[in-house]
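note to self — DONT lose this again. spent like an hour looking for the file last time. sequence + predicted structure for the chain T wanted, 156 res
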Amino acid sequence: MWDGKTLTRGTCSVERNNPRGECFSLAACSCVPSSVFPAFRYQDAPAALEWLAKAFGFEKQMVVPTPDGAIAHAQMNLGPGVIMLGSARDEPENPWGTWKQGVYVYVKDVDAHYARAKAAGAEVVRKLQDTPYGSREYSVRDLEGFLWSFGTYSPK
């Protein structure tokens, strides 16, 4: 709820009291974690990590390199926001191998979510599966072809 000065949600509130009068987002409040994360695949992910830091002020949060120098997974933050990225890979069975950007959404019950998406007609491009990094997830395209992945991994 916004009363013009304080934004409140549950037990969390953020006040608009900085000198410039800017409105703050609840995402900046630790009791309101995000569950939606932009995700990118770069031809040169190591260079992208450096460029995103230099150009936009993102900070490296986690980087998982592969033996060949590529990036299997990385997370960067800008304030409370988090993005995920990695190196583009030639994996025809994985939609992230050819699609360079999309959205990853954390959900608690991914099996129920998968059933719901299928029932609504989402185009499944990667079936629900357990991953080597401990997540259970799937990928779909929406009604206009945008790539969405849903799973139990939550970058924090």
